[in-house]
Amino acid sequence: MFRKANKFLSGGGDAEPTKAQDDEGESLTTVLENDEDRSALTILICDITELMRKRLIDTFNPKETGSQLGQVATHTDENGVPLGLDQMSDDEQKKETQESSEKESAELSKLERELGEEKMVALKTSALKFFDDWRDSIIIRVGEVVNSRETAQKQSKQAKPKETSSSDLESNLDETVAGENEGLIAEVLLKIYAPIETPLRKVAREKRMLILHSVLLLVLSLEHYNAHSRILLLYLTTSLGLPVTVLSEDEQKVARGLLTAAEKMSADEEAKERADQNRTARRWKMGIAGVAGAALIGITGGLAAPLLASGLGTVLGGIGLGATATAGYLGALAGSGVLVGSLFGAYGARMTSKAMEQYTRDVEDFAFVPTYQPECEKEARRLRVAIGISGWLGNKDDVVGPWKCIGPGQETFALRFELESLMNLGNALTTLVTSTAWSYAKSEIIKRTLFAALTAGLWPLALLKARHLIDNPWYVANQRAQKAGEVLADAIINKAQGERPVTLVGYSLGAKVICVCLQQLAERRAFGLVENAIILGAPVPSNSADWRRFRSVVTGRIVNAYSTKDYILAFLSRTSSIQFGVAGLSPVLDVKGVENVEVGDLVNGHTLYRHATAPILKRIGFEDLDFQELGHEEQKLAEQEKDEENQRKAAETDSNLSVASGEEGMSDEVKKMEREIEQKNNTK
To answer: Which residues contact 417 (CB under 8 A, 6 or more apart)?
Structure first.
């Protein structure tokens, strides 16, 4: 009976679907009509996973660094502007070429030593082992349903992915573009998750959507939806010629369907009974999961009967997949409210419940705050989680405000930590940047260039007189951010988010929290948990060794957004990260897979990141954006820039102190700033 049931779901037999099967909707049996189509799906999965593996290896390959080794010009004109080779004499060109070659060789040797260190080799080995174990489970699971375990394993060894041409990318984009913002994001994602050639692109669109839906359910049958699985589905989506929005919408439907069906199960008694069954089932699930899925669920009505009775097939089969196939593909997940709860972190409650109080031993006021409060709790549940982290606060609303721009594709939380410290820092920052002292200091820094001031310590005396106003709150908040990052890693490793991938987004010290978290995940070999890390204006070193570790635990995108006009960050970082470079001021070099984005036109001061976050996310092609909220933030950013400039001019007028007056009178200005900061701190 088991073999017969598996034959029905896998499409491995020759029998035509019966009328009863037709009434129940499609399955991969009917969508993949012949052996060639079934093989094509398995081969595509294998090709995608092979490409993912290669990109993981490239992270640790010194010849795939993603930088321009040795291309920094050593010859400049009288103004310090680098000269191109065509602007040099023959002797200068020869010397420049030789120096560039020597520099490239030295940098490559340095990278090879870095990558040859025992800790880095061990990290690479662990990352690949985790990936290979995940890949095997995916290929076996798909193979059981589509072909056979043996065929799938054989095809996985023959994987040779071939990405599509630029013309094919344009054809994908035609289906995706619905507006200017949507088109920009679609274009970026198509370049990052470039489609792989497959004959399945010739299949009718509705059937390609069913293939994607079916593979999503098969992935979930492994009882987790980790970051590797999510990236696999992104590649599958683009390779099938579908917009990424199709996957996001399908994820939302599946999340609602699972929770709706699970709610209808009798909670305690039923859950305990199913949990006992599942403990037994897990011993053979990976071996004959496809068989059991069909036999117990589709044929005998056993394991998943409660969910089938409550309409799981109807809820999840809305795009045409039949109830029997739906339950069969989900496996044990279809029959257990306990497993569904585990997937969502006890239906999402773990991130907001008193369970979080265990983390406040090390960090005061550590909590995940939902950015969206729906009337029905399950409406907010998603198969993916986003966590936004603010790095300083102008008011308490800034904990959540910057992250409302993240769209409905993810369940979004804001991380609230050390409220008082971040408020004190925000008060100090906003007072400094609107002061006459800062206007004068900034003009002096610009004369010398930012990096000249940063490397030589050529800071104006006016600014040094005011340094205690900013250094003290910065130091305190910086230390708290370090601890918060460690605690965040602990929460993610302990699955506060359930078995779902996490996207981390943060600016300023919030970006530092993310970097510390990623460092901890790498040290603890916690792979497959983080899908994306978007790091904005980070006050952390930009050295390649650290960022290679970050990259190893981020399966999807890791973005370093920096501004060469962020003079405040340069001043704050003057004593700590200068020897390694500062990620928030310059690109991260020599690490394949790290995206560097210059945002100086949006952020000419550290305090602007609060409202620049949404525009930056748009620029990098962030997958989930609320475009209405984006418009609001773009307007607020323009207003903030104008307001800060007006406040600086007013301060100059009030104090009768112009930038041209130089250092004189700055002591009075500093005392005025002290009073203003104290007043803000007392009234917060």
So the answer is: 363, 364, 365, 366, 367, 480, 481, 484, 487, 513
